[in-house]
Amino acid sequence: MNLWLELILVSLILANLHLLGSSRINACIRTVALQAVLLSVVSLLVQPHPIGLRLPLLAAASMAIKAGLLPWLLRRAVREAGVQTEVEPIVGFTTSLLLGLGLLGVALHVADRLPMADADGARFLVATALFTVLIGLLLIVGRRKAVMQTVGYLAMENGIYAFGLAFAVQEPLLVEMGVLLDVFVAVFVMGIAIHHISREFDHIDTDRLSALKD
Amino acid sequence: MIWALLLIPTLAGLAAFGLRRNGPRRALLLASAAAHLAAVVACWRDAPPPIADGWIAVDPASLLFLSITSALFLAAAVYGVGYLAQESHVAPGGEDDEELPFQNFPEAVFTGCLLLFLATMSLVAVSQHLGLMWVGVEATTLVSAPLIYFHRHHRSLEATWKYLLICSVGIALALLGNFFVAVAARSGGQTAIHLTIADLTAHADSLNPRWLQAAFLFFLVGYGTKMGLAPLHTWLPDAHSEAPSVVSALLSGALLNCAFLTILRTHGLLAAAGLADFSSDLLIGFGLLSMAVAAVFIVGQADFKRMLAYSSVEHMGILSLGIGVGGAAAFGAMLHAVNHSLTKAMLFLAAGNILALYRTKSTVRVRGVLRCSPITGVLWMAGFLAIVGSPPFGLFLSELTILKGMFDAGRPWVAAAYVTALAVVFVGMAAICLRMSYGLPPGAAPNPDEPAVRSTRREPFWAIAPIASLGALVFLLGVYVPPPLADLLHRAAVALGAN
Fold first, then answer.
1. What is the pLDDT of residues B111-120, one digit of tens each?
2. Do A210 and B158 touch (CB under 8 A)?
């Protein structure tokens, strides 16, 4: 495991914690974009074999969509909805951070137990990817604004996709592109929904979406 | 032929976005539904060759679920065209308790999404590649979200948001499952295995069992969310109750089945790798939990569309249970999937008629459907009898087959829990449905506070024929399962790992 890889993995963990601790929506969107870039780079670094042209291309496409297009869409949704840029947590920032540290432990533990044929670097990537997925889930349940839930979804998707780039390389381009397309459309549709929510309720707090229950 | 299955609805759907006039667009909806069904029938007559390197092929399970989807879609299209024509006349604020002013979604977008919904469901049914299947399932979520938001008001928006978020998150977890299967193939030493069902099954021995088990967990949680297995079903009652009845019928009858098919395929994979015990126990556990949760929420339910939605959760639990138990129960589960789809679509469409008549989803305020609207009332009662598993309808047969399979497999406790849940649901639904059907309609009662029902109105052909034909099919399947269908069900159950 070389120095670069270590550096990036540490910054990823810090980025995840930043997502939990930050109170500004725009900062969170930027962090998720950064996370997508870093994870793509890591997944290239951990490849044990020399990589061909296909994988860098895929990583580049994923970066373009997840670090360029989607953050732009989300920022636009925030601007158009005219919402305040505070995050408004359900689970407080300190509690979120503590939970996040706990999740880091869980991710390391799980990654340790999964049998891996590959080197140490891969093991740490698995841990980081899982950690990112868990952070995404925490954001989805622990944040009030629809935009932040979408950010959580993106973080989760970043983690999963990094895992895929690193280990599922023999899968053809078509499927990977299909996955990227789906994610793109998902965020797009969520963006539209956010727009409607803001128009219907004058805010995008999902905890007011509570008319339907038993 | 397979291309036709996918391309007809896709192209028609795209065209529908562009068509400005209502008449041609509705004709297009009907025509493509009929053409799709014709293509499926052609697949019954002779099996089409696989395309795209075997990634897309029609095997028995595909054919079964394609047929259900296509038949339901035709029924829903006929109903939907009439519904859309009526909706465009009714003043805004039509069918809601709170009489909120709202506008409908543009009809072109609705029709287009409906057709694309058919295309994506067909893709899920015919894909033999785990990755492609994932893309298909996620696509069904995305194209059906606008359908749920057809009535633009805050309740349907809430339902749409929950549906989008919960299902997207669930399906993202299933993607992780896909990658785990890839890792299982790689750490088993095989580098050249593609994620096609055939390839994976052929090399099942060399897959790493630990990763495969982890993968199944993620598949079950991910696709189980979409299928509506408890405790991941929370989106389902909201989406089904707030969507227009046509869409609810398709969601419940066709979409949940597609998700079920994906779980079936992964279960088949584990069975091929000799891990059937692991996946069976999980399926049985989730199945029983779903039935229990549904039973609790059905009793005393205040909204009849939510009641139907919970009944879907219950029946998805039965399917999962049947597959988990295996043997005769697996065959029963296949038959049950067919029966449940037809019956549930019938009930949702009938619920749409009741909703249009009474303008409320409250089970308390709807009374005397049989008197107000005799044909709908009779169909509603027939649907109720069918869904709770009374003879002579098809569900009686399939539920009994599953019960028999449980005793064959030596699981009397599972059988006891199953029968208990069925009994509770029977009582809960009977209390609600009987009260709705009998009695005096609100307008006829001497109580002036009750809202008057728009007098007994003529029941149009489009609102009756689809429901009646679905009902006739369920009845037919109860007394006679045609040999080709029985053969197909059997082959599908065997191919998916039921021994």
1. 999 999 999 9
2. yes
